[in-house]
Design brief:
The protein has 368 residues and is mainly beta. The protein has one domain (103-366): Neuraminidase (6 Propeller). Helix content is 11%, strand content 39%. The protein has helices at 2-22, 50-54, 68-77, 103-107; strands at 112-114, 118-123, 126-131, 138-142, 152-157, 160-164, 168-172, 179-182, 186-191, 196-200, 203-207, 215-219, 224-226, 230-235, 238-243, 250-253, 257-263, 266-271, 278-281, 289-292, 296-302, 305-310, 315-319, 326-329, 333-339, 342-347, 353-357, 364-366. It has a 4-stranded antiparallel β-sheet, with no helix packed on it. The chain has a 4-stranded antiparallel β-sheet with strand order 5-6-7-8, with no helix packed on it. A hairpin with a 6-residue loop joins strand 3 (126-131) and strand 4. The longest helix is centred in the first third of the chain and has 21 residues, at 2-22.
């Protein structure tokens, strides 16, 4: 009986095992492979192609990941730049300005200016126009009254000339349609694509290009330079920087700068405190550097050269690096203006007007 019971149990066990193995059916042809646990099927790692395998990292090492900073910079480069809010000049962002004349010419009276096609220059109370090579001189305007000594502060902005005779004036470049914008006692004006900056005997102010909306910026007594970011001016011994709206005034030096000129990222000037030598510095007042130890009465800067009048009243030039100084001649000169390849200047005492090439050749007197 016991043997019969054991035989029945064995048969039942065999039948049960056979039934369990038949329940594990194969997948149908329309089904998908299951991804590893915890991953969606689209996240399953792909095998490397033959090219990728050849350039992959060695077995047992990890592929190098780009730094997080690189990823950020790539994203930034695909969109518009974001202005920095941490800049010390965040409230005085650089403007896209054009200028009616160079600061060096304006500091020296503004008697000549070029638009890249022609040269305009003053002789007494007349304005002339000539070609860049100096030919085809033609008088385009003459102030007929006798209440002024001469015209100054020539500026070009688009199709107009700005200048000072008995008033601040604007006219077309062909000499027609002269219009008085406003009258004031001025030393000179500097025109930009946005404003007219005016320097009087004690005040500095600006107006719109049509002469309206006068805004006082500061006291000031002599020289003035405008850049895309700042305005610089002298007040007694001090050289002061301010924003273009007159705010944030800061004294950069007390060395009595004279004839400040802007060229590129530098300001050039002479100083009565430093033996009238030529110096340069950055607009923030740093990198104060001597360029030449020659004795300089006045200066102008253009095309990588500094043009200056030495203690003998001769016109000389030296590179902005301080090298290759040379005397050009022209005794008893003052008020150097540079336009195109020409130097325009006045003589001391008799106020005669002359010009010569920037290499010192072709000197000639100009007549009204």
């Amino acid at each position: 009986m016991k043997k019969l019971i054991l035989l029945l149990l064995s048969i039942i066990s065999i039948v049960h095992l056979a039934s369990c193995s038949q329940k594990k059916l194969p997948l149908s042809s329309g089904s998908k492979d299951l991804a590893p646990s915890g991953l969606q099927s689209s996240d399953a790692p792909e095998s490397l192609s033959s090219t990728e395998a050849a350039t992959s990292a060695p077995l047992g090492s990890e592929l190098e990941k780009p730094p997080a900073s690189n990823v950020i910079s790539q994203k930034a480069s695909s969109s518009n730049p974001v202005p920095s809010s941490s800049s010390s000049n965040a409230n005085n962002q650089k403007k896209q300005l054009t200028f009616g004349n160079t600061s060096g010419n304006i500091s020296n009276g503004g008697y000549a200016v070029s638009d890249g096609t022609d040269i305009y220059y003053c002789v007494g109370k007349s304005i002339f126009k000539c070609s860049l090579n100096g030919s085809n001189s033609k008088k385009i305007y003459e102030y007929a009254k006798t209440d002024i000594g001469g015209i100054s502060s020539l500026n070009i902005m688009e199709n107009h000339l700005y200048f000072v005779d008995s008033a601040v004036c604007r006219m077309k470049k062909d000499g027609t349609e002269r219009k008085e914008l406003f009258k004031d006692s001025l030393m000179f004006i500097q025109v930009t694509s946005e404003n007219i900056y005016c320097v009087g005997s004690t005040k500095i102010y600006k107006t719109n290009l049509d002469g309206t909306k006068k805004v006082e910026l500061s006291d000031g007594d002599s020289f003035f330079v405008v850049t895309e970011e700042y305005a610089f001016y002298t007040m007694h011994q001090d050289f002061i920087r301010m924003n273009l709206d007159g705010s944030n005034k800061k004294t950069l030096s007390d060395k009595n700068f004279r004839y400040p000129c802007r060229e590129g990222d530098w300001l050039y000037f002479t100083s009565t405190v430093n033996q009238y030598n030529i110096y340069k510095m950055k607009p923030d007042g740093t990198q104060y550097t001597m360029v030449s130890n020659d004795y300089v009465l006045s200066l102008n800067v253009g095309k990588d050269w500094i043009y200056y009048i030495n203690k003998d009243n001769n016109i000389c030039k030296v590179r902005t690096t301080g090298k290759d100084a040379v005397k050009l001649g022209a005794d008893e000169a003052r008020n150097i203006n540079v336009a195109g390849d020409w130097i325009f200047y006045k003589s001391i005492g008799d106020d005669l007007f002359f010009r010569m090439k920037i290499d010192g050749s072709n000197k000639e007197q100009l007549f009204a």
